[in-house]
Predict the structure.
Amino acid sequence: MLKKLVQVLPLYIIALILLPQLAIATVGYEEVGQVVLHGKVTDAQTQKPLAGATVSIPDLKLGVITDNEGEYQIKGLPAGNFLVEVKYLGYATATKSIALKDNVTANFTLQESATEIGEVVVTGTSKATQIKRSPVPIV
């Protein structure tokens, strides 16, 4: 009897260690991928849809591009609070903190923004100057 108990005891110990881990993994798996975020991105002044705007969730490293109607949809998101960013060329970036539960609608309106980039300096040299600077004689 004692010999059988000694043989079976390691199996019970392994089961006691692994079962809680399995339960935690199962709960986490059920929560991931259940949330859908969708909405529309429009111009603040004209209310026209902005096709091609980038909607992203930096924490999850996920993003999509809006369609021709300015609509987007991101599926398979985990529940939680996340920062959502919307970017479009010529417009100021919009950010919102959104609590993701079930299906969430988040619409964004973007303000036009003129961005000034640094100056570009173009320099060139003539063929004669290149020949003078060359250490190897060019015939």
Summary: Confidence is low (pLDDT under 50) at residues 22-31. The CA atoms of residues 90 and 116 lie 10 Å apart.
